[in-house]
Amino acid sequence: MNIKNNENPLVSVIVPICNVEPYIHRCLDSIIGQTLKNIEIICVEDHSDDRSAEILKEYADRDNRIKAIFHETNLSTSQARKDGVAVSCGKYIMFVDGDDELCPDACQIASETIEKYGTDMVQFDTEVVNCAGGSEERIQMNQRFLFPCLEEIRAENLIFSCWKEKKVGFSLWNKIFNGEICRQAFADVEDGFYPKAQDLYAFFLIAYYSRSYMGIENRLYRYMFGIGVTGSDYISIPKFDVMMTEKQIWECLVRFIDKKQEQEKYKEILDGIYQHFLADCVSRWQNNLQTENISEGFDHLVDTWGLEDVISKLAERNWHKSVELAEKMVDVDYFKTTRNKGNEIKTIGIYYRSIKNGGAQRVVAVLANEWAKMRDAKGDPVYKVVLVTDEETEDGEGIPEYELDYAVVREYIPSSETAVREHYKERYHAWSTIIEKHKIDLMVTGMWVAPCTMWDMLSIKGQPSKPGFIIHAHSFTSVPFGFVSDKFAELMYDYQICDGVVVLSEVDEKYVKCFNPHVTYISNPITFSTGNMKEVKKEENNILWLGRIAKEKQPLDVVYAMEHIVKEFPDIRLHMVGDGDEKLTEMLKNLICQLGLQDNVILEGFTSEVEKYYEKAQLMMYTSEYEGFPMVFCEALSHGTPIVTYDMPWLTFVRDGRGIVTSRQKRPDLLAQKVTELLRNSEECRRLAEEGKQHIKELEAVDIGQTWKQFFDTLYEEKERDEDSVDNVIFRFLTSYAYKGKQGRIKNMEGQITRLKEQKTQEVKAAQRKVKNSETFKVGKTILYVPRKMKKFLKRLSK
Asked: Which of 461, 648, 717, 739 could form a Cys-Cys staple with 489, CB 3.0–4.6 A?
């Protein structure tokens, strides 16, 4: 059949063609067979590698309505459409992709509709065809997304209707356009190779010049989902690079708006498009690259978008789901150190959220002072020290900070509590500024289990100067396994990404070495001098419990223990020093009254003058579930006060044993038994007191600054990690399977919740059907029929 070419076609159909040999027959047949014959078919063959060009020539020979344009090089769909539109003559223009199809009456219904409403464009519905075995849920999601807004829109232009009001989608192929507007818009499309986001680019320009829109529910287009990149689970690096050309489209839009001198008017829209493209590329890197391409892909991602925006977008999308991301980052070379043992560390940064009102806070302040005071053989400072804390909040106002050496430089960053998710960018920028300003070589963080730590580490290690990053753990490394969050699993990868880890016991050192060979045990600095301790006679039957009133401190247990102790020592007094959880404090008070121990247990509350309690106490009871390096142990033992504690066998104090007696966890009766035995044996009590004081003197004699320096000096030495050792294997896989098990339980719970919701929905629908089928409902509906009609009539009349 040879159909004569019409010089005045009603509709021009633009078809970009590239490597669609398996689909081009279906596509062209669907257009040639349109019920509306007064059309021109402009096919732009974009230098295919297959037989697409030959097939197109065959079709052009048979149908004179086909105008065939052949590119000598591959110029992308954007240029193909532009070249096609430029030679079009139709009153209206439609677009069809070379692997999709038009329904038989698409051109006729679309052109009749746009004629009828006199709008600049009409959007119709799309049939999404599952060509790659995708999930039905994904197909239905696309089907809903492509369904048009069934209303007429008239406005200054349609940009805000699309990108702000979300009424109009930006796909080109599910619409018919005013031909003159379309040609005007495509004339502004920049020549060039733009293989991604061509629809958004062209539609933005069309929407800028368009003033009206209409949507209809007729299904006129068949979208073959899964044939192209859209449906792929995995993509190669070349295809990933194609994805990132979206950035070029955004730059084209910015230049277009700049030319129109309407930057402020469209700033929010352009920012949103930028974030949309960035999120798309970040998601593709995270979800669609094979593991072996993750590192190279990240380099390409940062080259295109910059580290600040990449980290910020990852933080926005993964703040509380960071385990899988951390696992990927282990293999990303971008964050691996470029330093070696020859690189001198001149400036050290140390970070904690504050340096007030807490043991970890005090340790950070003391370490900063120690490093700042260190001098070399010439008497010059060994390090410049920059202490970084969060910006002051109202909660912290009025509370004094721990004293700092004059040489310690202060810097502040947005709070770790507020600079989260989409707000993390503010914190990244602060880190970048501080590192560049002070030329920081190494950053030490004490926030080892905070959600911000991984993001801070990536932000810092990713800077051009590639600073080192050390995690300083402030508690037992197994504690995060008890958290509601998945931090325990993320830490497994954080330890591998960072340059080194400092822990508080040999037990912790053994665990962390499974993930990083640069790990060492360094005790916390003693923050007082044993030489200033007064020798005070202990008061008989006077014992002490000191700590924060918190769940992990298990303060109720010490009261239960006292119930047993008073049976042998009726006049004994326990001073409980500290405050905290108000609800738990109230429970303490009630328990004391319930057990009749008002004369034996005295709640002292919080005081900074704790020396008098240490000096007078015969011994101290301790009931914590876990600790890292309890400074109260140091304080008690330095005052010659032995400690009876629940067993925490990882603690260096407990493993050393001097001055300490342990009892089984969760057994206040056994704890009481140890206390009574010790109170009966004054000689044993004195022996423990002397041993404990000697232990603290030895700790005090350690030069903490030099100990840290030795670690710094060996940080970049080559060290091998035996991944196949028994310890490494068991620790790594215990952590890994604990995480998998937890995720499995969460998915099961989510599934149960979904099933319950569905069941509830079905029950509600069944109840509604029962009501509608009842005689009472039918009678009521009949009675109200006339009043309803009258109400509608009066409403129309009033208008």
From this structure: 739
